[in-house]
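Lecture 7 notes: from sequence to structure.

We start with a single chain of 160 residues. Read the sequence below before looking at the structure.
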Amino acid sequence: MRGKQAPKRKITPDPKYNSEVVAKFINYVMRSGKKTVAQRVVYGCFERLEKKSGMPAIDAFTKALNNVIPAIEVRGRRVGGANYQVPIPVTGDRKYALAFRWIIGAAQSRKGKPMDIKLADELLAALENEGEAIKKKQDVQRQAEANRAFAHFARFGRRK
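Now the structure, written as tokens:
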């Protein structure tokens, strides 16, 4: 690692639900610095989610997010001239980063509807343990399971 590590910035909670996780999700949805547009998309999605799921939007979002959050992932390690896919537990903020990326990517791949509707549909699917984001999580876990034999390489040359 070169130089100093960038300091962690404290994220301000979103105005409607007073949640840092929702604020972070809004930031992931945001394009070209247009935060109000991203807020409109996420809050529209939450309204739709509340109507369809029959539970408070923040609870439905949290439950869907917990279904998508991965426990383990694979990272490439170079050992003795060969590259191995080594299974490593996912830590801290990276869990949310991966889950947000998978949910938003899955929503964007759905065509023909506004983003808030696509996002709500993907979150509803994640709530039921279905959908593209859940499939992505399962693929990653399956890959980690297949490469479990290389887990002992995780100890060597491991960085924080």
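The first strand starts at residue 72 and ends at 79. Keep this in mind for problem set 3.
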